[in-house]
């Protein structure tokens, strides 16, 4: 059973997966698709045609603009922005208000289990890798590898994280998760489970 607040705005043709919750003042636009057991926080915006996999959390006042794709288990922190316009303008070169026909939307793709910290901005087009973590306040302008921990403006890799979200610790030729004990190997800037 879904929980949808009375003040939430659900567009025509939006699909809200079983067990999902959409809280006060959130807007889920037409043709958006939420998987099972998603949580959309107060005042969050999910654009037309945006897709969320199962078990995603989009926290309060986050803005997820189309055509974003979030795979299963993605966390979007409070006030995060996923952009969709490389060269934003309100008007055409002639001064007329831009319409849908004047706009080539590009999206942010976030792979399984990744987490985006509060007030981070992801500037499309880009992909955030599986289980990666974007620090709060970061501005991401380039693709982020799987398991990478990125921070700063512009964001850069400052370490690796495991599936538990904890920074990995280097031990000889491996990276170890302090929470789970899982081991990972790094080769050529890519991290893979052992």
Automatic annotation (TrEMBL):
SUPFAM superfamilies: Trimeric LpxA-like enzymes. Gene3D superfamilies: Hexapeptide repeat proteins. InterPro entries: Hexapep, Trans_hexapeptide_repeat, Trimer_LpxA-like_sf. CDD domains: LbH_WxcM_N_like (cd03358). Transmembrane segments: none annotated. This is Acetyltransferase-like isoleucine patch superfamily enzyme. The lineage of its organism: Bacteria, Bacillati, Actinomycetota, Actinomycetes, Micrococcales.
